[in-house]
Amino acid sequence: MVARLLMLTLLAIVISAFAMPETPQIRATLAAVLAAALLGVAVLPSSSTLTRFARLLAPFLALAISAPAIWMILQLAPIPFRGLGNPIWTTASSALNELLAERLTVDMCATLQASVQYGAVISLGLVTALVAQERQRAAQLLYTLAAATTLLCARMIWRHTGGLDGFPSTQDAPSLAGGAVPAVLGVLLSAAMVVRTIDKIQRGRLPSGLASNPIIALPFALFSMLICGAALLLEGSSSIAIAAFLGTALLLAVFAIRKWFYRIWSTVGVLATIGVLFLTSVTMLPMKENTDPTIALSMQNHMATERMLLDTNQVGSGAGTYVALLPIHRDIGTIASRERPTAAAAVAIEMGRPFLLGVLIVTVLGICTLFRRSLLRRYDYVYAAVGASAAVSLTILAFIEDGILDFGASLLAAALFGLAFGQSRSSSEITSSGRPRPADGVNSRNSTWLPFRLVTLGSASARVVLGAVAVVVAVQSAWLLTHERYLVGPPTATSGVWFGTMFGSALHSQPRDSGLRERQLAAAAQTSIDGAEAAQREDRLQSDVSNTLADALRHSPLRGDLWLMLAAMSKELRSTKYDVVTLLKISYYTAPNDLDLLPLRLSVAFATDSAINDPDLRELTKRDVKIAVTKRPALRAAIAAAYQSAPVDVRAFADNLVSELDPTYLPNMRRQRP
Length: 674
Prior knowledge:
By secondary structure, the protein is mainly alpha-helical. Helices cover 70% and strands 0% of the residues. It has helices at residues 2-19, 24-43, 47-56, 59-76, 87-96, 108-131, 135-160, 180-203, 214-234, 238-259, 264-284, 303-311, 322-329, 343-351, 353-376, 382-398, 407-422, 427-432, 445-482, 495-508, 514-526, 528-555, 560-572, 580-590, 598-607, 615-631, 636-644, 648-661, 666-670.
């Protein structure tokens, strides 16, 4: 009963991750649910089940699983020695007038959110691997995952035919990225179901369950393959189709070797054929010339990604920080359509190229391990085979797109690999791999005590490890949900609207109308109490807004929109805590091409007397004015609005600059507006 409930929970979580918007709150909530499920499987199963699981989870596999989490912790940890962290922390310390600890990551919020997602993925994989140790549960999991991918691919086909066009905006629509991953995995899972059903029929062992009945399983597998194949064709990429084809070819190769070519030379011949087929398919993949290998297979435009790859160091910029780096490297005005890197490029940028190389080595070793175990298993070899096939297809997909990094796609892949490793070795094979039975007789005390001690130690260690992982993921998710500053998403096309609304509400809390100001001053003069309350409100406003923005920048120092917001607030409230010119310069450096920030940035720069006296800021302001006058006529109103509130020397600077760029616009800029 518990296993069935867990399978239904896993299915609901995977589909929910695809159906709901991919926000930090949803990821943290689903991670907490998966942590609770992992804690349940650490407590409820029997000792023998946990002992088999402990022996199945070899030290190499455990190290490979924990290595990314350890590296994320190192990226978040403060570095005690100055100069070893990312330079942005030194710049932020100078701008905020306080000493900030240096770190490898450039955005603590993004790296924390990435670590929560990785914890959810690992939790799902461990739960699936433990549940899949029982043969009947493994078959049900295979059908459940196939059903999930079929539903997701049917939803994707519905979207392509206009089913989701009714959403009023992309903010309300579910996350639609990563459509290639469920399509490719759906083809592999349906092919595995076909192979398993044919193998059962040939051996004359027809399952008694309704779901495993060949009369039901085979038509469902063919229908699933049809739906997933149609979704794969709708992706419109030959590279993705080749990735699915190579994974399916490896799965069929395992079936052919076991049925007809099990001898050594026959197996070598099949493997050689697969190798030739793989090399031929790779040569058919469209590749870009003279570009980084991580984006060579992708046909999309990756100008900003190429710049990031050239600037990245060997330790990376921090997990999940690609979006934070994007405003620095993207071209002018490319805001609405965010550039999506390949998964390999994102890993190289965020975690470093040595880490990417290590991931590829571990993946190759995992493919070889699962392939070997699929040939050694007497029955139920299809689970390890589909795991090896999925690893081949997803590795190719990682160099084509970034869908595998999406939350739903990563959960789906984790469930499949958990199923593959959970059934990669039979129970008898795991038991026989333990210590040999002592040769001093059946009735010997040691012959009964040693297996009991091994089972006790194995189950206890498995419970401790699984419980520790569950507690860490649960605490991390709960802490993230209770600290709102770490749930702030990356800067988007609507960031200008967000901080414009915040800025306007803050300013409107102060009296702007002159008559209203006089009446309030007269009222304040009547009683000293009212005057004290007005001063306290103003001080509280200044303190709250500045502290909120500064606290956000202490964790995400690459947010150019927040630097500009802090500069605008400091200028409006005449705060002496921060230097407005320094804040403006950092806003330019961290978001140089974000046109949403141009109106407010010009307003703050023109209203600051010392802005045009700084050589660097003077050139940056000239650049903004040139863009607004010559390339974006719709932004000319921002120059006129900033001009009206500028002091005399700044107006002279603007007059000279605009007269050089477009003399016909100069009278319109000088015209007084209400």
